[in-house]
């Protein structure tokens, strides 16, 4: 897998999503729970808007000085024995990771949840060299067992599955014979995974934030699996997107707070781990610590009107409030990054060719922009994409160019505008309530809704008539 | 107070005159002189949101000129008011037009916002007998930042029972051209909205944006639900003897 999870056309994916009523009830239930928890945990702070301003400032400052902080981070990590590798492309990242695994003659890798490793298709690259990769995050493990079903959410990857479906997967793949009680399912997964932790040669994690001042990697988790991944195998690799950095532990504190509250409505998750490379012999620490910093298109976003998209801390708050995501689910986006941030980020990282519909898959309701803890103007960035698609990519594919030019001409020439309004009236009166009635976009509208009928009762006429009456009244 | 009405294209060319009429009569009753510059057209949002910014700019110039001399501009739509507030962004490198756009934005208000914030009136003396629920439209709530004004006004309407709409700030699925470009998704969104409206048991849905009301109302009518749909101006302009 890489950033693209499906080659089906956009509307086929959406159709499948809409038909999947199991998934939709799981998604809307999860959205309501997560959003409710977030609302409670942010209200409790009392000054959430100040926190958002502060977090935005930290992210903007870091991105404006990214080269400085990346260098500081890399130097500090290397000075303590860490191996830092800058990968410009996903291929470079995967080749480096493969080379570490081959040098260690590793047969098994155990990994914690990481979106960037999905983005670069790391698991396939590792399997290609004959090494096994085990996902240890519960959600990811379920998906891996289920024939590598792609994640549909960036924090809760198996959000689209309910507990019955999970029991079925466990039964089919691992001869599970107990109930669909979440505790029992969780216990079973832990037992199964324990052996993998003990026998893995290499542990791989993502990175929520890298701290420049100390050369550390920090991980924010709830299940404790990331601690096992980073404590047991002798070789450790952390893969991070190049924007995932904070200057000092002080900023880390703020952003971790924002992340936990925004993602799952917790003050703090069960584990917040800080990992710093160390040359001192310690039986509880890995012998080798590699940090792979992935560009994969990010540096091209820096300095553009889309730079704020790199402020993202991957909390999924925008996804949890998105009404489009609610009805179509994550897989409809065709990308490992779904929802509003996915619709912004995917075309930036992968280009428009396969993703032209994504920026239009939003009603621009701005719930995402309102929810974002680091104040990315998500709906505005979607409009920017639309603008670029219209101006530089040969149009949206919805055949609206002539219509929009005509609209602009009419809406700047009042007489023509009024004539248009008047002549449309009878068409709407006649066909507005008929299923699929009317031409072009009106046909799509009337397939599912009626149109209001004016029947010649126009406000403009009423107002003019009233003015005439008033003038006559004044004259007499 | 001299108020210039921006009627919006939906209230002008699509809906019968009642919404515009109610807006004018209501503002006049509250002591305003209402004018209606006939040259006005559309705010340009369909082009802006679809990515046609040159086209949106052409429309914006026309609207800026149309309302240049007016004291206050009031519109019965949170979404169209929001669009006018976006005009300055259309002229990033043109100081003259950006300044004109900023002037227009500063004097443009959505109807309920104008009544509550500028006229400082909450009881408009209306009577409407019925159980009502209110849909908070997205642009008005989140972008224009007008959340409370409609509720404050509705609270003082005599005879009106207001039941809170569950998920009242969830988008109804209109989104301008989204409603046709992404019709299958829009359909699911409006169906959930209609379901929540039905759950309130209210006999009348009220909103401050005809775009949303056209979408929700059109779906309600197509699916034959027994719910009436009204613009807030019509409710606030209702009197004991004349339920318009």
UniProtKB/TrEMBL annotation, chain A:
Residue intervals of the 4Fe-4S ferredoxin-type domain: 309-376
UniProtKB keywords: 4Fe-4S, Electron transport, Iron, Iron-sulfur, Metal-binding, Repeat, Transport
Domain Lactate utilization protein B C-terminal: 385-467
MF terms (GO), sorted A to Z: 4 iron, 4 sulfur cluster binding; metal ion binding
Biological process according to GO: lactate metabolic process
Gene3D superfamilies xref list: Alpha-helical ferredoxin, NagB/RpiA/CoA transferase-like
InterPro entries xref list: 4Fe4S_Fe-S-bd, 4Fe4S_Fe_S_CS, FTHF_cligase-like_sf, Helical_ferredxn, LUD_dom, LutB/LldF, LutB_C, NagB/RpiA_transferase-like
PROSITE patterns given in the database record: 4FE4S_FER_1 (PS00198)
Endoplasmic reticulum keyword on record: no
The UniProt record lists the keyword Metal-binding: yes
Pfam families, per database record: Fer4_8, LUD_dom, LutB_C
Domain named LUD: residues: 70-294
PANTHER family per the UniProt record, alphabetical: LACTATE UTILIZATION PROTEIN B
Protein name per Swiss-Prot or TrEMBL: Iron-sulfur cluster-binding protein
Species in which this protein is naturally found: Alkalicoccus luteus
TrEMBL record, chain B:
Function summary: Is involved in L-lactate degradation and allows cells to grow with lactate as the sole carbon source.
Family recorded in the similarity comment: Belongs to the LutA/YkgE family.
UniProt domain Cysteine-rich: residue ranges: 3-84, 132-216
GO biological process terms on file: lactate metabolic process
GO cellular component: cytosol
Highest taxon of source: Bacteria
Protein name (database record): Lactate utilization protein A
GO molecular function terms listed in the Swiss-Prot or TrEMBL record: oxidoreductase activity
């Amino acid at each position: 897998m890489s950033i693209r999870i499906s080659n089906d056309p956009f509307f086929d994916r959406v159709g499948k999503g809409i038909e999947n009523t199991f998934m939709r009830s799981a998604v809307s239930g999860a959205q309501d729970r997560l959003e409710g928890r977030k609302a409670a945990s942010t209200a409790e702070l009392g000054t959430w808007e100040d926190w958002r301003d502060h977090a935005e400032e930290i992210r903007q400052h870091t991105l404006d000085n990214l080269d400085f902080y990346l260098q500081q981070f890399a130097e500090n990590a290397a000075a303590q024995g860490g191996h830092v590798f800058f990968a410009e492309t996903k291929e470079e990242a995967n080749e480096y990771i493969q080379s570490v695994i081959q040098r260690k003659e590793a047969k098994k890798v155990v990994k914690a949840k990481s979106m960037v490793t999905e983005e670069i298709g790391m698991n396939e690259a590792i399997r290609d060299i004959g090494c096994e990769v085990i996902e240890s995050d519960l959600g990811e493990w379920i998906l891996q067992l289920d024939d590598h079903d792609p994640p549909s959410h960036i924090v809760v990857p198996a959000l689209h599955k309910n507990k019955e479906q999970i029991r079925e997967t466990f039964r089919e793949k691992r001869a599970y014979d107990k109930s669909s009680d979440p505790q029992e399912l969780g216990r079973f997964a832990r037992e199964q995974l324990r052996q993998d932790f003990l026998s893995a040669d290499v542990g791989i994690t993502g990175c929520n934030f890298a701290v420049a001042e100390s050369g550390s990697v920090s991980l924010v988790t709830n299940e404790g699996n990331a601690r096992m991944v980073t404590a047991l195998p002798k070789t450790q690799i952390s893969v991070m997107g190049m924007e995932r950095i904070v200057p000092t532990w002080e900023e880390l504190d703020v952003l971790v707070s924002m992340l936990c509250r925004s993602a799952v409505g917790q003050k703090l998750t069960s584990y917040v781990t800080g990992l710093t490379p160390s040359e001192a012999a310690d039986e509880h620490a890995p012998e080798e610590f590699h940090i792979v910093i992935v560009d994969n298109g990010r540096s091209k976003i820096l300095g553009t009107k889309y730079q704020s998209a790199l402020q993202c801390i991957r909390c999924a708050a925008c996804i949890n409030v998105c009404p489009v995501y609610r009805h179509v689910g994550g897989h409809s986006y065709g990308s490992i990054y779904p929802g509003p941030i996915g619709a912004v980020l995917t075309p930036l990282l992968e280009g428009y060719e396969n993703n032209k519909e994504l920026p239009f898959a939003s009603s621009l309701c701005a719930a995402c922009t309102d929810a974002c803890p680091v104040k990315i103007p998500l709906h505005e960035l979607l409009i920017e994409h639309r603008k670029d698609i219209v101006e530089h990519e040969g149009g949206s594919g919805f055949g609206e160019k002539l219509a929009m030019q005509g609209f602009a001409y009419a809406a700047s020439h009042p007489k023509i505008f009024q004539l248009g309004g008047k002549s449309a009236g009878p068409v709407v009166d006649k066909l507005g309530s008929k299923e699929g009635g009317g031409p072009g976009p009106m046909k799509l509208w009337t397939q599912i809704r009626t149109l209001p009928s004016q029947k010649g009762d126009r406000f403009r006429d009423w107002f003019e008539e009233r003015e005439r009456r008033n003038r006559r009244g004044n004259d007499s | 107070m001299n108020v210039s009405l921006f009627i919006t294209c939906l209230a002008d060319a699509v809906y019968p005159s009642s919404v515009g009429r109610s807006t004018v009569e209501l503002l006049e009753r509250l002591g305003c002189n209402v004018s209606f510059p006939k040259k006005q057209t559309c705010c340009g949002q369909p082009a802006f949101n679809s990515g046609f910014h040159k086209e949106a700019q052409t429309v914006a110039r026309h609207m800026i000129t149309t309302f240049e001399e007016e004291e206050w501009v009031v519109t019965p739509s949170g979404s169209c008011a929001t669009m006018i507030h976006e005009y300055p962004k259309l002229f990033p490198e043109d100081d003259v037009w950006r300044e004109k756009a900023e002037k227009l934005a500063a004097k443009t208000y959505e109807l309920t916002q104008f009544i509550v914030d500028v006229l400082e009136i909450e009881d408009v003396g209306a009577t409407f007998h019925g159980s009502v629920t209110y849909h908070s439209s997205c642009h008005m709530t989140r972008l224009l930042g007008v959340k409370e004004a409609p509720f404050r006004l509705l609270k003082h309407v005599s005879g009106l029972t207001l039941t809170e709409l569950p998920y009242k700030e969830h988008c109804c699925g209109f989104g301008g051209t989204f409603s046709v470009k992404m019709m299958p998704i829009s359909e699911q969104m409006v169906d959930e909205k209609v379901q929540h409206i039905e759950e309130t048991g209210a006999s009348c849905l009220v909103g401050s944006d005809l775009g949303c009301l056209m979408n929700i109302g059109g779906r309600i009518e197509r699916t034959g639900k027994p719910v009436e749909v009204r613009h807030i101006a019509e409710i606030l302009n209702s009197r004991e003897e004349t339920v318009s």
